[in-house]
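To whoever picks this up:

The nightly regression suite flagged Copper homeostasis protein cutC homolog as changed. Nothing in the input moved, so I suspect the structure step. Input below, exactly as stored in the fixture:
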Amino acid sequence: MTTPQPRPLTPSLELATFSLPSALQALSSPTPPSRVELCVSSALGGLTPPLVDFLALKTATRSLPRPVPINVMIRPHGESFVYAAAEIDSMVRRIQEFKEAGSDEDGFVFGCLGHQGGVDEDATRRLLDAASPRPCTFHRAFDEIPPAAMPAQLKILIALGFASVLTSGGAPNAFAGRDILRPLVSEAAGRISIIVGGGVRQTNISELKTATGARWFHSSAVVDGGEVCDLDEIEGLWRALKS
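Regenerated output under the current build:
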């Protein structure tokens, strides 16, 4: 008897949106993303958005043929990923506000590092407890960890209960970090999703999929110096991802 082969995992696209107009544009696409990451301030790599933007986006999702989860960035400033106790208190309050306004499929994106450069487990655990049972992503704070230490730190994120981690492999962009991302995807082994992010475009996403073995990819779909995602780029990302 021939052993049935496992079906390949469906590729998924997370769209980073740095404004409400960009997020609404993403949802209007004929091929909307698997998930939207909502934040503000692209120049700082993404900060916590206003609650009113989240509420407007949730209203827009009700008209969609299928639900599109929204992951909210919880990041109070762009200075560093090391936070004082008062800042963690504030982040917990923001999580609680968005949690009450959202739904079960929505999640959160955050990342806390200690002064030695690894994951700040105590601070991170407080945020995860506040967000529970919503899925959480450890964001690109992970890319400040030296690549040699990433596998061990990934195990910490798995033990803490993260659903996913967004990373370029510590490189300036995902394509440059593809050789580091591949072993991270293998190390994850279905216990956590590696979201490949950083300069992901329709021109390189197919090669990134092959090189990394990842299932999740993250892009702003912003082109030519624009501020709002480009619908043609979203369609192109999906077309290349599914080829």
